[in-house]
Structure prediction request, 748 residues.
Amino acid sequence: MQNILEIENVSKHYAGHTALDDVSLNVPRGKVYGLLGPNGAGKTTLIRIINHITAPDAGRVMFNGHQLTQNDVAHIGYLPEERGLYKKMKVGEQALFFARLKGLSNRDAQIRLKQWFDKFGISSWWNKKVEELSKGMAQKVQFIITVLHEPELLIFDEPFSGFDPINANLLKNEILALRDKGATVIFSTHNMSSVEAVCDNITLINASRNILTGNVAEIREQMGANRYRMAVTDSVSNLLAGIDPLLAEHKIEKTEGDTTTLIIRANPGVTRREILRAANESADVTLFAPALPSMDEVFITTVENFNRENK
Amino acid sequence: MSKIGIIISREYKERVTKKSFIITTILIPILMIGLSMLPALIMMFHEGDTYTYAVIDRSGIIQPQLTDTSTLKFVAIEDSLSEAKQNKDYDGVLVIGRDILTNPSDVTLLNHSASNMDGEMEIRSQIKKAVEDERLKSYNLSNLSEILDEVRAEVNITTYRIDDNDGEDSSALPSEVSFAIGLFVAFLLYMFLVIYGQMVMTSIIEEKNNRVLEIIVSSVKPEQLMLGKIVGIGLVAVTQIAIWAVLICIGVLIILPGIMPAEVMAEVSTFNSGQFDASTAVNDPYLISTVAQLSEIGYIMELFGYLTLFLVGGFFLYASIFAAIGSAVDNIQDASQLQLVALAPIILSIALATMVGSDPGSSLSTWLSMIPFVSPILMMMRIPFDIPFWQIATSLILLYATFFFMVWFAAKVYRVGIFMYGKKPSLKELIKWASYK
Prediction:
């Protein structure tokens, strides 16, 4: 079974609005899967369906090759974006409570919690009430609660929000370590640089629909076809006069001293050699390299194109 | 332990170990005893104002027979009515008509200040007695006063309940005492339904606000969470009732014999052995039968047993409504209007309780105590009156059937409601949510 999770034509409607419209996606086992999309696109609804919190109106969710049931949630760990703990409850007691809700025995939960608390250096918090902790501290506890039962599938909704860079990095490494141990991670975020850093595959949900899905490298490659970064020390107008017939579009990225950097997209079929030859004749080229779009750019371009087409 | 068990135990432990629970469990009985004794204490230490009335007795018969009491003083005057009215030394003027014997209503009371009910009653009964005595005298009976002394009687009823089975009639409480006990347990239940019902609601709103909910429902079904919470909090209520039952048992076993005079306890034991004779009793037979009944542990246990059954049924019924409301709103303020849906029947039942208690055997009372939403409080009001068991059983069955339905309905609303943020829903929307998939 290559895919741990298969979402098949899932739709969900609420009174007067559609949260998900015929969304399908496959999450391969042992990878980090990015779930992207603007606010209100339907990501949280999809995550709730995967967690068996709400049921889809149409379509189905396959987990490990069978239709998702309530029992499967024991194999899923979920860190919601809006997170919270019982404020008046002690940290250790609370962690035990959640661990046991996930089906761990009291003894197993104690042992594992101790390991994690040692690992994060927070053993002294065990008898503290949650209200005594800072936001970041509480989030660490929450992370432990999410992964403690060693789920096959981990779902993190904006896991890094509220963390300082050091702790965010610590968390990122833990997530990757969990993946290396065989866990599958679904990662919902607006932070595109973290997507590039950790995600293998992504799905972009916009206006309740899946509008882009695939491998991160392939998507960037594909969207970066015929896209180059070029720097010249001469006048830009001279350069453009020379190469403009070959280009579909161009954009000045920055100007520093007499060096101007551009992002250009060549017309299909135009080779690098042709561009370079034309450029060299009209300007002094100091840089010419393929320019893969950042995930930020992929996100913005895809969503904007979609919105324009579906107006 | 099952998941619902884990939730129940968390909800239960969190509340039972709270200082406020321990304090209220001890404090409320003390407060209740204090409050119930307060009026008596006030009466004991408060010497009522004395009212002085000028009496103009045109018949000349009544005035000599009026006797001063602790609050009333009568002064015979010779002045005319208009003069007496001017005189502010008196609180009022009592004018007795010339033909009082033939027309007993020919009595006027003129007050300077607000009239006082107790005083008027006392004056009326004194005049009535005087008139009756005078009329009797007109029959010229010899040694009339001895006859009158002998005729006047203080009536006490010792009530028994006819036992259809073995023929041995069991003693029953006087109606006033049953009424008081009924009102006490009905009020207790009222308090529990409101306080613990709202506790369920606030706890759900709190979970929704601090977003703990989202994590829990990724492990258990929302329905399980709701049910676990209701059961957990319900168990807290039952614990409190059980503690109070034990406290009361200790009270009647140890404290009651201690504070009651020995001769009362002696008569109580003759009462219990069935040899009590009201006509030769030294103490008030009401007191004796009440003390006898209350110091019977079996009776108290039975009462608290029923109280627990109706508490559980009523609590589940109302807690599920409170839960549905709590799931739908974001804060307590928004809940206040919707809450009326749950509070109105509870308040209605406590309002009907005195009516039901004053005639517990009537068909209206019987029917009211069968209707699920008001039945817990109204049936508890009737139970001290020794009503037929089948009525209690029917009422319980109806109550439990309704609460099962209500829990099911609330679970459906709850499942949708907990993810609704922002908008303040109407009751209509809540009902619509129940039909969502």
Notes: The longest helix of chain A spans residues 165-180. Chain A has a mean pLDDT of 89. Chain A has ten helices and 14 strands. The interface with chain B takes residues 15, 48, 51-55, 57, 70, 73-74, 76, 78, 80, 82-89, 97-98, 100-102, 142, 145 of chain A (CB under 8 Å).
